[in-house]
Amino acid sequence: QVQLVESGGGLVQAGGSLRLSCAASGRTFNGYRMGWFRQAPGKEREFVAGITWTSGWPNYADSVKGRFTVSRDNAKNTVDLQMNSLKPEDTAVYYCAADPNYQGYKYWGQGTQVTVSS
Prior knowledge:
11 strands; 0% helix
């Protein structure tokens, strides 16, 4: 059973930073793509950042490029999202997700709330 558990969300002022962590368990993740998504109230869920488990190659949504950094630690089975220069529009529930063998995101965490105040 694949389990993804996010942590690190909270309340931060605009311009501040937060680091989210996703603890992944249940199997080995070779060949997986790990992703971070977010959803604000009344809006569609959107892709934020992704990273390949084996090689660590990242990609980002244009809205967060240059501000957010995604990384993974294979030894600890974690996927982190370092968020800097946060803006109020970054306020959302952030979800960790896993895509087995690039077939589409299938596994999802429960989400963690990030609130950025003006």
